[in-house]
Amino acid sequence: PYILPIKPKIKERLRAMRDRSLPASPNWYCSRCSDVSRGGLLGVGAKNVICLLDVSASTCRVTGELVGHKDLVSGVSFCQHEAQSHICVSSSTDGSVKVQTKTFHKNLNNDLSRQNPVSAVHWSPVDKNLVVSGDEKGIVVCHWYNTGDTSSFFPEPRTIFCLSCSPHTWNCVAVGYKDGMIVLIDVSKKGEVMHRLRGHDDEIHSLSWSPVASEDVFYSRPEDGEGSTTNGVSAAEEKGCYLASGSKDQTVRIWSTARGKGVTTLKLPYLKRRGSVVDPGVKERLWLNVHWPKGRVTQLVSSCFSGELMMWDLAKSGKQRWTLFGTSSEGQNHSRIVFNTSSFQLPDGKELLISTSMDREIKCWDLASLDCCWTLPTLGGFVYALSFSPVGSGCLALGVGDNMIRVWNTLTTQNRYDTRSFWQGIKSKVTALAWHPTKEGSLSFGTDDGKVGIYDVFSNKPPQISSSYHRKTVYTLAWGPPVPPMSFGAAGGKPSYSLYSCAGEGVILQHDPSKLSGDASDIDRLIRDTNNIKHKLSPHTDLSWKPDGKVVAVGNEDGCIDVYQAPSLKLLCSIQQHHKIINSLRWHHDHSCAPERHSLLASGSSNATVFVHDLHSVIENPPESPVVLTEPYRRLSGHTAKITGMSWSPHHDARLVTVSYDGTAQVWDVLEEAAVSNYRGHVGYLLSVDWSPVDPDVIWTGGKDFTVQEWNVSKQEFTKPPKGEHLNLLKKKKPRSMLPLSTSMDHRPKEELLQDCITLASVRHSDGETHFTVLRLVPFMLVSEEGHVEAGHFDSVVYLRLWSGDLEGALQLATEKGELNDHLLSIAPMAGFGVWSRTVEAFVKQLCLQEQYLKAASHLLSINKLYEAVDLLRSHKLYREAIALVKARLPADEPVLKELYTCWAATLEKDGHFSAAAKCYLAAGASFDAAKVVSRKNDVLSLSTAAGLARISGEVDLAQSLALRCAKHLAAAQDWVGAQEVLSSQDSLLVSIIYLPFCVCFSGDVGSKKHSKTLHLSEEAKAAAGSLQALVCYHRLYEFWWKNSASSQEIHNGLSCPEDEAEDRVMNGGPSREKLHPATGRLDILDFDASLLLSEPHAACQASQRAVKEVQEHLNNMVLQHSQGQGGQLDAGEKQDDGPRQEKDFQGSADGDHSEGQETLLTLSTKMSSCQKELAELPDTIKVQLPTKH
After folding, report:
1. Beta bridge partners of 1038
2. Rounded distance, CA 836 to CA 808, Å?
3. pLDDT band for position 1026 (50/70/90)?
4. Range list of β-strands (E), 128-190
5. Cα 1110 to Cα 1049: distance, rounded to the nearest angstrom
């Protein structure tokens, strides 16, 4: 049920074996788009086919293609088991996974319509029946080749970039994702994740397993520095295998699959290239491919920035760790990034590596010498033109749609694919080529954007570009003799050849090759003047100069071919045999033995028939007036689609090859009008052809399939083109007719159609002209409407009603059948406002069913239903768009805005997006809810943010609670600095801040390296902490004193004891760590530091305060004495017996002052200032917390 018969066209292509071929370029940006089988068969995904190449010999050879995918091939993998080594599996962005060989193909998808684009595929090296694929949605699918069963897993909701099956255990698969994650899954346990390997920061481009199933090599240098054991089990005891990964982050990492950790990281070096160095600051385009060759345990191959390949020696370090490929000679490396590498071993033991690159080259490398063995160029676009040089034998020029020209030396013996590429100055598809007839190496080209230029293929100079551009694509280039005005003064050194170009706008320009910077001339002006033509000339589509330069044939858009005589371009004849656009014109070569053959002109147009015209008589005996030819010399019929190119054989008389849109090349014997050989090796239509100038049996063709193929005429199985098969594949499906009955009338027999013409002419010239037209049209419309209704084509019925003027009926039918569209809605206002409004509402319901909610809301706005539009967006959880709509249309205090924010916040909170929910709560004015939702995550950062949010919002109690919770988490982690910062933000948590230093001291984390920051306290907090610490110390000293007092001798009241003296010594700065017991005389050691009770700053503060107190007392005494002396003089009438006493007191005071050092007011003031200055310099906390003693 799974093996399908191969299609006939595939068999034909496989039988049409060609000698040489340039294949299509391998697809870019795919992790495994090429692979090599055990027997040396290389499969390369190119567009939607798989190109097969035999690389087992000293050179490569294209052997065929495998088709079947409808979109780009994203992965190719051969089965590595000997019995199935000829089978490969391929994946595509069309969602299909196929197993194919040259004889059959097998579809592994059960339901193609539901498949996502497949991005990676791999055939298990261990299990010959297991194929694993991954798609862009993150789904991994296991396909069992023998039974056709599948099983799907969804390990991660990420985009899969690559995957690789283990070469040692069948059930282990490594999956690389776009975001840098690597996941190891067990497919035997329903895709259970074994390890998640984190380390890369960007896309995983490639994965490669070590060829050895052990992890003994690199454990001496673990990347994470955690030793070589995991959970108590040594690495040697665990079963595992190394895995290499290449990422866009410019690193290659080696992983231990046993431990799930990185072992080593390889950073790509910045290499000098072409005299310059890669700037690390400039982000280079990079694809990092890795490949672990079999049998090389410590050697890993990887790509680099600019196409270099390097071999890493994992046993070494430093710059000696890597070696570049291709250093023995210049030009061996790729010039752009490498996408895929794969290796295989020849029977003689030689190991080869195959690489594909963005430079469109496939290279083969010798892993022993790291030198390039051969290079195969590939093509990245349609092959629009093929042309052999008339001077350099075997030099084939290719015009390709990848904006490059290739020049292939097809006769070289050393390198069968010796090509050179030219790209400077082109910048567009190369659609036309023409070699100079006599000047070697001079190649003219035309491009898709209308550019014409000339390359010297033997120099490295950029091309000469004509200053005259065509407006459309250049289709044909031809060298011919100059015609006026360029032919004037030819004897004065003018070139003997001019370059003629014909482009899509229908103009032929003549360019001077010696002065392309000059203006080109339009030959139509000369044609008009010479032939006295007044009417408009038909647009030109092709031209061909006869090899002797006497006449030129010009093909036109109307199918006519005009033949002009040089140099005046006098019209000799007009060939009117084709009825469609002329695509190709070719003159027979002039080295034929029969002179009459020199005047044969072959023409091909879009009507699939090739005509050959004999113009010998017209050229040899020019008529006085132009003649019209209506019958061809020979008619070549067989192609089923339009002719795109042709070429005469330079080795035969009257033998022609033509290529067509039917996908084949046909060789004709013109004289016999017989088909000789038909080549069917291409996929799609052909565009170009040329006959080999050295081998009569070899023809080269190019086409839509991005390939150039060399094939032998005598080795083809078929002689004629296939009948209808290729044409049917290329024919576009015609749209359904609006008037099927009328259309069917046009498909009647030819006799009836001709009779209709007679009838119509008769009626038209009678009085019933108008009635005839109406009577024929109205029944057609009525019957057509009924037929469309029966067939369910309601869109056609709607348009028929519109044409008949029933707009409201058309809108009603479209509404009922769900066929409303933007066009119908745009014309609905013609039926009135009410109809338009109802139509809009119906269209809104239809759009909602189609899940086009934004468009539906926009249409509601058109009928001024703003709140309904907001409700529609809110009901489908499009809160962001609803809020934007409200802000754009309504004032800022609109209540619905707060409701939207609240609903959005509740949804976000339910989905676990707490930070976004908090923003919505804040926008709605619910600060308390915002703080609560932020704190729900219950980590340090969330709690700290929530506490700050609550504090700013004025929620003091909530802020304190959250700050304490956060400080508790930080304290549990011994992050004292973080805890202090959190508590310091809350003014009312001073007690907790004071308590924090004690936690640090008691935890023993003072010198911890985990948090190296210093715990900083404010001055007020430091003072409070010091006071609290002293109080605790006093309390402990008091307990110590009472404990020792209870065991000492009896203490009598009123007597001091030795313990008191010891305490006094401690308080007065004596020994703090020991005391002498009075009874036993032993030395007891204190279990705390009593020196904390002593403080130099506090002592200095107390001394300054005492000095200030003494100075104040002295000043008070002096003021008192002075006031008493003044009072004695004023009270002279007092009793006399008081005088002696007062005098005595004053004398005593004077004596006292004298005894105290004769302190004066000045000295006391100086003392007071000094003491106050000392007090001012002391912190306020000391002065406040420790007042001076009295």
Report:
1. none
2. 10
3. low
4. 130-135, 140-144, 150-153, 160-165, 172-177, 182-186
5. 43
